Amino acid sequence: MNYRSRNVKKSWVRVVPLFLLFSISAIGAVTLGDILSFELLSSKRELLLNYRDAHYIATVFFYMTLYTGIVAFSLPGATVATLTGGFLFGIFPGVLLSVSAATMGATFIFLAARWGFGDRLAMKMDAAGGKVKAIKTGIDENQWSMLFLVRLVPLVPFFVANLVPALVNVKLWRYVISTFLGIIPGGLVYTSVGAGLGEVFAQGKTPNLRVIFEPQILLPILGLCGLAALPMLIKAIRGGEAL
Fold it and tell me: What is the pTM of this model?
């Protein structure tokens, strides 16, 4: 086997994790659909509560494993899973369990992308010039702010926030820390909603998932976004003064 053939084979091996990730995600989106739904949670709530009371540690393990898999393969049901954490375990440790599991799942996507083509793409961006180089430099100079912003802003798709940092050579430890801390506000909101699901189900209602866009919730999150963006703003102002 010549050198070129070995490189081609190695490239295919590196892409395998990403191929599996996207394949399982596509299959899950088609086959699972709305399986993880409020209706399912409502109908199985007594069974879940009884199992939790009898096997608390096992319930924690299964919950975190399921949640990690949902995030890692971008399967439908992440919001319901977060609510379930609050329903089963309360606001605390429910938010800690869901945030930890989401971080592990996001890290799986990050590592798969980094292993597949993140390093090579980052090197190409470093070697490029013009606008590509300027964008890469901007991200490098403001990594903490950018990482927190994509986590805090509710409109940024979670999968995009998981994948992009791997393609611009963000360090793993920085990615993990910013992911864990950045998703706490949103996770806390939905976990608190989940903690009150018992009463909601008893009244035959559906939880309000748009609660995160209500002023008393959204404004503090936007405030955190402002704090995350502040270093970039200060740097831009200083740069303007220098000019």
Answer: 0.78
